[in-house]
Amino acid sequence: MISLVINPGSTSTKVAVFENDQELFGQNISHPTEELAKLSTIDQQYQFRKDAILHILKEQQQDLQKLDLIMSRGGLLKPLSSGVYQVNTQMIDDLKNSPRQHASNLAAMIALDIAEELGINAYIADPVVVDELQPLARYSGNPLFPRRSIFHALNQKAISRQYANDIERHYEDLNLIVVHMGGGISVGAHEKGQVVDVNQALDGEGPFSPERSGTLPVGDVIRTAFSGKYSEQEMLQMVVGKGGMVAYLGTNDAYQVELNAQAGDAKAMEFYEAMAYQVAKEIGSMSTVLKGKVDAILLTGGLAKSRMLTKLIEERVAFLSEVKCYPGEDEMKALAFNGMLLSQGELEIKKYQ
């Protein structure tokens, strides 16, 4: 089974070709900030990113006629259950009209376009809007603002299953706290195969990250919003895109910040310690959701490659349970793996409606 996997991110687009779950070709296409700045909306980036994907596939002599299916990252759709969904017109309409803009919204659009040209099907798996929250987790403090499930579902689920396989257990039998650390940071409480609570990592909950502010003092945010100094768009950018590390240090390059910290930059070091501190606090919070019954704490995502950061977190949470690191993002392989199971008839195709 040959699949094409497409995964757009905020500043890059990952594309790969897999045979079953083994990668044959992979490329992370970086998009210069100055190029993206010319495309003010995600919708305007559609053709730009599609052309970039097709160009790299042609350049690397990848034969699209050999593809059996296309797997793409899920976008900001309506809340849905975990699983694999065939891309259809309803899904595309919802992505185009989504009140939240994110590069992941482009994945299914590009996948369907290419798939239709080839006469094959396109699918998504475990999009960021997978919703398994327990009723108590939906309370925010005001009925106008219910808590919502938006997180790195694909990677969190994939890493959870990988850990379960490593210890020869079933994911559905474990209680896990999984921390995805990338441009955004999500911390999920996995209870017997269900993510019963998780911070809304997209725009306003949990630890700050390289590009996001996380939870802010809401009164101060309201007063700032009505101060007349900032537009709505500027306020939103404070939360997503220009928050966190960007706001404090002027960069989203965590690797460079770590190098600066190791070289004696006190400001960079304190920031790294503060980010680890906030992640650890969120882990502690999720441990109460699981009533202290935590089989393992799993750290994953790009920032989990940093031994400095993971050690700072582990020092604060190791008393709760063992801490295991799965550095990097397994999203591409997870998508391909879902495609393989689908082709083997081991997964049911769900209909998006």
Please name the defining characteristics of this protein.
single chain; 353 residues; Nucleotidyltransferase, domain 5; 2 domains; seven-stranded mixed sheet; five-stranded mixed sheet; 12 helices; 20% strand; globular; cytoplasm; Butyrate_kin
The overall strand count is 12
Order of helices and strands: EEEHHEEHHEHEEEHHHHHEHEHE
Q: What is the number of helices? A: 12
Strand order of the largest sheet: 3-2-1-4-6-5-12
Q: What fold name stands as the CATH topology of the largest domain?
A: Nucleotidyltransferase, domain 5
Distance between the termini: 27 Å
> Could you say what the CATH architecture of the largest domain is?
2-Layer Sandwich
| Biggest sheet architecture | 7 strands, mixed
The structural domain count equals: 2
Shape: globular
Structural classification? alpha/beta
> Going by CATH, what is the homologous superfamily of the largest domain?
ATPase, nucleotide binding domain
Beta-strand proportion:
15-25%
Q: What would the average pLDDT be, to the nearest integer?
A: 94
Short description:
This protein has 353 residues and is an alpha/beta fold. The protein has helices at 33-37, 46-59, 89-96, 105-118, 153-166, 218-225, 232-239, 244-249, 254-262, 266-289, 307-317, 331-343; strands at residues 2-8, 12-19, 22-30, 69-73, 84-86, 121-125, 175-181, 185-191, 194-198, 296-301, 323-327, 349-351.
